[in-house]
Write a structure and sequence with these properties.
The structure holds two protein chains of two kinds. Chain A is an alpha/beta fold. Helices cover 39% and strands 17% of the residues of chain A. The longest helix of chain A has 16 residues. In chain B, strands 1, 2, 3, 4, 5 and 6 form a six-stranded mixed sheet that branches. In chain B, a hairpin with a 5-residue loop joins β3 and β4. Chain B: It comes from Desulfomonile tiedjei.
């Protein structure tokens, strides 16, 4: 079978089949009658992480890796019913992410009804499912929740931003919902059916980030055994979300600038130039204007990203939203942990409304998650709240806010968006979790299984949090 | 060099496509030369990533070879000093042969036509 067969008879001249399939913003797999992969399109490559050429001839269940493949393969139904079948399930891709999908399978038959193969369409439902699980749709736009004038202004402006195709720069303190806003813009835009690719510019070393963003050709360097398309090409017809853009190295800022100018990508080791149609959304908690003044961020890149700037207000400026968000997350976590709680006691409510939430919505969410976990009755009392909210901590036990910031060593604190001063009694949520874990580990005499049981978590949850908090030894 | 204990979740004769959905596993002990010292198949009471993780630790497994695995379990096993070679596609016997020859890497796709007679070349 040719690697890219031609389709004849449709157009004036034959066209390459895979090029046609690549233009469809839905994951597609062509299978032979034994359900082995003939080809997959670019959208499915993005979704699964497999490249079409490496999995040709492999049974589809090893590539899609859906939970349906084991007991409820839609192709079985297609064979029985002789009609397309659509089912929902999940897949685990090569990046080890679990993604909710809708699988639609149909048989490809000749004129006499003989099955020649199958076509499987895979629709990414991940973001949709997340929103449905949020549960509260009133006073909400997609996953964003709030009734204050500040957030209502965001609700009004988001659909307008989504209609344009300009670059967007989202700023705001940590925990204000930058990721959610970026995904909402994508979901509301004409690109919603295309991929939404997120890259954390601060999470990878420079060399790796370059190959991750721009891709490489097979043989470009030692270990490049297959070609990698790169995130820009994977986001074709969709949105590329660059979070922590303030952490992007200067050398890559130049390459990003070049892409924003001509919309072309030059993979490492390739002489070919790829033109891609991608909308770029960038976000940062840093003050890019200040970084430009200190020559840590290119001014010309800021100008190009700054076509539309959206600043998300800190929670303390969102007034009545605290009450709305408390109710929202209470419903969410009650549903998730299968608990029936009536609400907060007046005292707990007062404490929560009086608190200033330096970690913004993320901190509020964590507090409610903690309280729902630890509540043993029908109403969340003050004693179910994290200790740092209810017990005043002596000043000498509190580190200065700068010392809590991991960027302090790099002297970058001054570059962040100016925060309001943290109150003396507010500890970082991570510190509270760390304290809880250490207490449980002490009680359990170092046995992690028992410590996890004390905390009411699974072992892997405990481990994940320990790793996040730096409590795991090398 | 001590013997190496390897656990491979299976689906029929192949490496199971999903770690969390594998109905059975095979536990193999290899000596330093790659010879199989012991081989046991274990049918799981139910497919579950948690059960598998517990089994992997109880068995004091050194290496897990699997297909798709959620990041949470990958990180957990790695933290427990279990080497995880994931996203492997292929028949169990061929995968084991490559592992014994130190020629198996994450993401390897071994096609059915690549028999054990095929020469194995290192990835780099």
């Amino acid at each position: 079978m040719p690697t890219n067969p031609l389709v004849r008879g449709l157009f004036e001249r034959p066209v390459e089949l895979l090029n046609l399939l690549d233009e469809i913003p839905l994951g597609l797999a062509l299978l032979d009658p034994q359900r082995r992969i003939i080809a997959i399109n670019r959208t499915l490559e993005t979704l699964t992480g497999f490249v079409s050429e490496e999995i040709e001839g492999i049974h589809c269940r090893f590539v899609l890796r859906s939970n349906l493949c084991i007991h409820d393969c839609p192709l079985d139904k297609v064979s029985q019913l002789s009609a397309p079948t659509s089912v929902q399930g999940n897949i685990v891709n090569k990046s080890r992410q679990r993604i909710q999908v809708r699988l639609t399978a149909s048989a490809i038959e000749d004129g006499d009804g003989h099955v020649l193969g199958f076509l499987e369409a895979v629709e990414n439902l991940g973001a949709v499912s997340d929103r449905l699980s949020a549960g509260v749709e009133s006073l909400a736009l997609k996953g964003l929740v709030g009734s204050s004038s500040e957030i209502q202004r965001i609700f009004q402006i988001l659909p307008v931003i989504a209609l344009t195709d300009s670059s967007v720069l989202i700023t705001g303190q940590t925990g204000t919902g930058k990721d959610l806003v970026a995904e909402t813009i994508h979901q509301l835009s004409d690109r919603a059916k295309g991929p939404f690719i997120k890259v954390n510019c601060g999470a990878l070393p420079e060399a790796l980030l370059e190959s991750e963003l721009f891709g490489y050709e097979k043989g470009a360097f030692t270990g490049a055994v297959t070609s990698k398309p790169g995130r820009f090409r994977m986001a074709h017809n969709g949105t590329l979300y660059l979070t922590e853009i303030g952490d992007l190295p200067l050398s890559l800022q130049v390459k990003l600038l070049s892409f924003l100018d001509d919309k072309t990508v030059h993979p490492l080791g390739s002489s070919r130039v790829y033109t891609v149609d991608v909308r770029v959304i960038a976000a940062t908690h840093r003050n890019l204007d200040e970084m430009v003044k200190k020559d840590k961020f290119r001014q010309d890149l800021l100008f190009r990203l700054n076509v539309i700037r959206l600043h998300l207000p800190p929670l303390v400026q969102r007034g009545a939203d605290v009450r709305v968000l408390l109710d929202h997350f209470l419903k969410l976590f009650c549903a998730r942990f299968n608990k029936t709680l009536k609400g907060f006691s007046p005292e707990a409510h007062r404490i929560l409304l009086d608190y200033c939430y330096p970690g913004n919505v993320r901190e509020l969410r964590n507090i409610v998650e903690y309280a729902v976990n630890f509540c043993d009755g029908r109403v969340i009392e003050a004693r179910h709240l994290p200790q740092y909210l209810t017990v005043p901590i002596p000043n000498e036990e509190i580190e200065a806010p700068e010392q809590l910031n991991p960027h302090e060593k790099n002297n970058e604190r001054s570059l962040e968006t100016p925060d309001r001063a943290l109150p003396a009694a507010s500890l970082d949520w991570a510190d509270v979790e760390k304290k809880l874990i250490l207490e449980a580990m002490t009680k359990a005499r170092g046995r992690k299984g028992k410590a996890a049981a004390i905390l009411g978590w699974g072992r892997s949850t405990l481990w994940r949090k320990m790793k996040k908090l730096g409590l795991v030894g090398k | 060099m001590p013997d190496k204990k390897v656990l491979i979740p299976l689906s029929g004769d192949d490496v199971a496509p999903r770690f969390d959905l594998a109905p059975e596993v095979v536990v193999v002990t290899l000596d330093d030369d790659g010879a199989v010292l012991d081989e046991r198949a274990i049918v799981l009471p139910s497919a579950s990533a948690e059960i598998l993780c517990r089994l992997i630790l109880d068995e004091k497994t050194d290496v897990v070879v699997c297909g798709g695995i959620d990041d949470e379990y990958f990180q957990y096993l790695t933290w427990k000093k279990v080497k995880v070679i994931d996203s492997v596609i292929g028949r169990y016997d061929e995968v084991l042969r490559r592992l014994a020859a130190h020629a198996l890497a994450p993401g390897d796709v071994i096609r059915p036509d690549q028999t054990s007679k095929t020469e194995i070349s290192s990835r780099d």
